[in-house]
Amino acid sequence: MTPRFSLPNLRFRLRLPQSRSGQIALALAVVYLVWGSTYLAVHVALESFPPLLLSGLRNLFAGIGLFVLAVRRRPSMPTLLEVRNAGIVGTMLVGLSSGLLALGMRSVGTGTAAVMVATVPLFATVIAAVAGRQIAKGEWVAVGLGLFGIVVLNHGDASPSSTLGTIVILGGALFWAGGAHLAGRLALPSDLFLSTALQIGLGGAMSTIVAWVVGERLLAIEFWPVVSFLYLMLVGTMLAYIAYGFLIRHTSPIIASSCMYVNPVVAVALGALILGEPVTRWTVIATCVILASVALSFWFDRRKAG
């Protein structure tokens, strides 16, 4: 069933593409550029917000805002099963993935974190194999190449904090791939706007509860961390997740996750230009290797789809 919500309905007084290909191109541009810049925003916001609370509050508030807007459009109300499924997907995509990313970035640079998250399509391949899809040998080569790139990325940096941060971020990438896999298979609310609001809000609520239970509290509030938080909530979450949800429904999960192919380039560039993060030879080599492995996985996916 085609969802009632489509990108042209979300006008915000802008003239959006009317063709399906144009809508997909616009959605890809949003997730490419916006999510590429969120690593910088998270880095700045962590100066005042603890990681799990940062992830939880930004998504909880964004989910509430989207839900209010969705209800004003009077969509068909979801069933309890659809609400439960939205909560499951949201917990994986938002509560676990986003929370672990923020937690890992306390000891990992923005560019390195983005390169780590680029492994999502590789995890998607592994999950698809576990779910019973036949995986070609070349796809396993892509997975192996991506793992090799991770090893190269950590070459010469064996500090416990960096290693632990890397593991945590990879865990977040795994949950993201799992959430994307379930989003394409579980019954979710037919209205994309309402479905996205429930996923973000419920996932953010779970992360906020966990953050409160483990004792996270707001630190000294400063101007730029607050600005970064608002950017993450309004643009990095509300706008970008609508675009990503549109891609999930109208493309394959692997293609929808193709933002991981471009995000590292944006993140590394912003980290170097604004934060002065070093771009070493090993960073460049590892980035090329991981992105090549992701490109290879996309190529096999398109080839299998004919």
From TrEMBL:
A GO cellular component entry from the record: membrane
Keyword Magnesium included in the entry's annotation: no
Domain EamA, chain residue ranges per copy: 26-154, 164-298
UniProt KW keywords: Membrane, Transmembrane, Transmembrane helix
SUPFAM superfamilies with a match to the protein in the record: Multidrug resistance efflux transporter EmrE
Transmembrane spans: 21-46, 52-71, 83-105, 111-131, 138-156, 162-180, 192-214, 226-247, 254-276, 282-300
InterPro entries, sorted: AA-Vitamin_Transporters (IPR050638), EamA_dom (IPR000620), EmrE-like (IPR037185)
Subcellular location per the Swiss-Prot or TrEMBL entry: Membrane
Lipid bilayer topology: Multi-pass membrane protein
Pfam families: EamA (PF00892)
PANTHER family with a match to the protein in the record: EAMA DOMAIN-CONTAINING PROTEIN, INNER MEMBRANE TRANSPORTER
Family to which the UniProt record says this protein belongs: Belongs to the EamA transporter family.
Identification of the protein by name: EamA family transporter
Lineage of origin: Bacteria, Pseudomonadati, Pseudomonadota, Betaproteobacteria, Burkholderiales
